[in-house]
Inverse folding.
């Protein structure tokens, strides 16, 4: 089962069109009351639009509401304030505006969805179904409304009608897995294990790699056919090794435990439906709608570990580490996913330039479990990103010691340690690690590029190095850095015309990289295109090159490159310092 069509459906919804000009998330820092009181209606509106462009839902909501108080009949302000609050996760306040939105437009699907979810949370099941019935009209909303209405019907005590409503729904093929999963959970809670098992098995056959389906089916099997339960989880573990929830399930089954039901209430079932759809949408281009569904899911089940993880991951994809950090902080300490959240918190601290905090977070995790490969690797990544090359080589070494017998999946650890060794002037060790990475993953383009480039730049193994770089370019023809390697390799070999051709292509792919601009300047100079060479060097200088490269670029701007017949030029070419 795939959700490709699910993502495509989003583009056609009115909500996606509206949200395209609205903030996708909060910065967490709304304007103060004093700031809001000083702003005029037009000023508040403009400030809200600016906040929206910055994807700051908290500020946008505050400013839209301030503008709305001055112009309470303005429907555009009402809609935008409502949606901003919703995306920011303030569902209680969004619900207040949803009532006004639905009064102004009785066909507004989003406001009806919010009102339905609020009623469901309050166990007002008749009201929930009434509101949800008016939120349909489209593949996503039809499925959402049906699943939530069915959970409301179950909450009211009629599981038979709840399952019948799910079964009546017709639509795209990808509906099936949602229908079987939720019908199975309702039947399981209703005390009809035989029928529940059939629905879980049907969902599993549709997609045996869908985590929540595997968990639901495995849970049911653990209570009825424990041996098969372990087989289901072990099969998933072969496809996606060491997922914390699956490892936890296998450990408990081996200990003779029966796994609990995935959900135990109507509210938790509805939260599960919103999570499943929100996570799928967020991964497939429907970020705004994904945010809405995940926020509503957490409104119904505020400690849902997978909804928290999906929301934080969505914030990360939108380049908002501060918001991701806040979500990860909400992960329950008892969840098997807590350690994953802690590692990702460190990654987001690092993205916020809170490097010392990131390192301490990871060091604490490693102290708690010295064989935690993910935490050790994450620490190495932080150190490498901040050019602590001696330290990262040592950290990756600890990761390699933890691995024991490496396989293909471990190639990156050797590759990264090789980079750290090379950058800390330990070439023999670097070369050995890069060769090991290729042994584990033959023809891996990034390793081919790094090792081949290093050899050519040093003037050794020239034929083999060039062949490696060419194979890397064949696999990654649109990677500016790899294309630059090929161009620079030709330069080091003195084939300046060929170098120029490839370096111009690299600039097209990565126009703002100082090293590539510097390389192209050198190639232009060697083919006699002096003015263009100086332009590229000037551009490289202005793009903030590495501190040790800046004086070299300024010297070239002043005096150009030395003649190739000079002793210094020959020495540079021999030692690999021509650029």
């Amino acid at each position: 089962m795939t959700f490709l069509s699910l993502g495509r459906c989003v583009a056609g919804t009115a909500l996606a069109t509206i949200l395209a000009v609205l903030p996708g998330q909060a910065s967490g820092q709304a304007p103060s009351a004093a700031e809001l009181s000083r702003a005029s209606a037009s000023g508040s509106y403009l400030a809200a639009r600016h906040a929206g462009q910055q994807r700051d839902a908290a500020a946008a909501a505050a400013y839209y509401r301030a503008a709305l108080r001055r112009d309470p009949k303005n429907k555009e302000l009402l809609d935008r304030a409502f949606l901003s609050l919703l995306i920011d996760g303030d569902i209680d306040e969004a619900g207040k505006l949803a009532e006004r939105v639905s009064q102004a437009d009785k066909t507004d699907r989003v406001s009806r969805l919010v009102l339905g979810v609020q009623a469901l949370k309050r166990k007002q099941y008749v009201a929930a179904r009434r509101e949800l019935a008016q939120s349909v009209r489209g593949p996503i909303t039809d499925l959402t409304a049906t699943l939530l209405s069915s959970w409301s019907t179950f909450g009211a005590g009629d599981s038979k009608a709840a399952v019948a409503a799910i079964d009546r729904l017709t639509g795209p093929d990808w509906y099936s897995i949602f229908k079987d999963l939720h019908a199975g959970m309702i039947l399981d809670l209703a005390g009809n294990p035989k029928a529940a098992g059939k629905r879980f098995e049907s969902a599993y056959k549709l997609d045996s790699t869908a985590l929540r389906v595997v968990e639901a089916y495995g849970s049911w099997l653990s209570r009825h056919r424990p041996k098969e339960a372990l087989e289901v989880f072990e099969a998933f573990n072969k496809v996606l090794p060491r997922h914390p929830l699956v490892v936890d399930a296998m450990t408990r089954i081996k200990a003779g435990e029966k796994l609990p039901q995935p959900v135990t209430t109507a509210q938790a079932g509805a939260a599960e439906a919103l999570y499943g759809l929100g996570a799928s949408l967020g991964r497939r281009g429907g970020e705004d709608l994904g945010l809405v569904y995940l926020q509503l899911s957490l409104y119904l089940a505020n400690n849902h570990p997978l909804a928290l993880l999906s929301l934080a991951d969505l914030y990360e994809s939108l380049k908002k580490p501060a918001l991701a950090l806040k979500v990860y902080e909400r992960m329950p300490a008892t969840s098997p996913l807590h350690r994953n959240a802690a590692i990702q918190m460190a990654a987001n601290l690092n993205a916020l330039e809170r490097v010392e905090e990131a390192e301490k977070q990871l060091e604490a995790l490693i102290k708690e479990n010295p064989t935690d490969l993910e935490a050790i690797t994450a620490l190495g990544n932080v150190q490498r990103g901040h050019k602590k090359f001696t330290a990262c080589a040592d950290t990756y070494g600890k990761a390699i010691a933890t691995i024991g017998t490496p396989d293909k999946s471990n190639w990156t650890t050797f590759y990264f340690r090789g980079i750290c060794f090379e950058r800390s002037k330990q070439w023999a060790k670097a070369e050995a690690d890069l060769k090991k990475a290729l042994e584990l993953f033959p023809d891996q383009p990034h390793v081919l590029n790094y090792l081949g480039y290093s050899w050519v730049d040093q003037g050794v193994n020239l034929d083999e190095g060039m062949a490696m770089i060419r194979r890397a370019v064949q696999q990654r023809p649109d990677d500016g850095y790899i294309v630059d390697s090929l161009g620079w390799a030709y330069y080091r070999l003195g084939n300046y015309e060929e170098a120029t051709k490839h370096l111009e292509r690299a600039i097209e792919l990565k126009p703002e990289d100082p090293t590539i601009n510097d390389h192209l300047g050198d190639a232009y100079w060697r083919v006699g295109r002096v003015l263009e060479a100086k332009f590229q060097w000037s551009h490289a200088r202005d793009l903030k090159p590495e501190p040790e490269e800046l004086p070299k670029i300024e010297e070239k701007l002043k005096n150009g490159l030395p003649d190739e017949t000079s002793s210094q030029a020959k020495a540079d070419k021999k030692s690999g310092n021509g650029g």
User: Anything to note?
Assistant: Confidence is low (pLDDT under 50) at residues 1-27, 566-579. DSSP finds 34 helices and no strands in the chain. The domain at 23-105 is CATH 1.25.40 (Serine Threonine Protein Phosphatase 5, Tetratricopeptide repeat).
